[in-house]
Amino acid sequence: MAQDPSLRAVGWARSLPISSGVKTARDWTREHLAKLGWERTAPDLMDSVVLTVSELVTNAHIHARSDAQLILTWDEECLHVTVHDASPQVPEPRHAGEGATGGRGMLLIDALADEWQTYRCPRGKDVTACFQPPPPTRDDGS
């Protein structure tokens, strides 16, 4: 059977003022990933996505001193997690000293996501991380 070449996607977006807190972003993300069935089919990946959301929204609130716009887009191959903030400063992985209490967020995202990129926008930037779920397991006894 030939696959339909048209893109099929579903997405959700949420504005997160600095006052909303990062827990709101994590809970909202977990709720939408549950709609995709990832609690059952990819729980570890779901945890990686939620941790990435937490890091990106924290960066927007703390480092960019900005509200964050969180966008989740699922195109049946990849979950794109995008956080927009008002700062033009592009995040970069950096080496945090042994006693440092921060500075590891982008290194963590680099380890968790299949890939991530930053896009400069006229009013800030978007940071997008892509997550590809594992292929479905066959349950035919073989």
Binned, the helix content reads 25-40%
Structural class: alpha+beta
How is the main sheet built? 5 strands, antiparallel
Distance between the termini: 23 Å
Query: How large is the count of helical segments?
Result: 4
Number of strands: 5
Evaluate the radius of gyration. 16 Å
The outline comes out as globular
Enumerate the strands of the largest sheet in spatial order, edge to edge or round the barrel. 1-2-3-5-4
- Low-pLDDT residue intervals, each spanning 5 or more residues: none
Overall pLDDT level:
87
Order of helices and strands: EHHHEEHEE
Q: Which range does the strand content fall in?
A: 25-35%
Structure explained in plain terms:
The protein contains 4 helices and 5 strands; from the N terminus they run βαααββαββ. The chain is α+β, with helices and mostly antiparallel strands and 142 residues long. Strands 1-2-3-5-4 form a 5-stranded antiparallel sheet, covered by helices on one side. α3 (43-63) packs antiparallel against α4 (105-112).
Features:
142 residues; alpha+beta; 5-stranded antiparallel beta sheet; globular
What can be said about this structure in brief?
The chain has 142 residues and is an alpha+beta fold. The protein has helices at 22-35, 38-41, 43-63, 105-112; strands spanning 10-16, 68-74, 79-85, 115-121, 124-131.
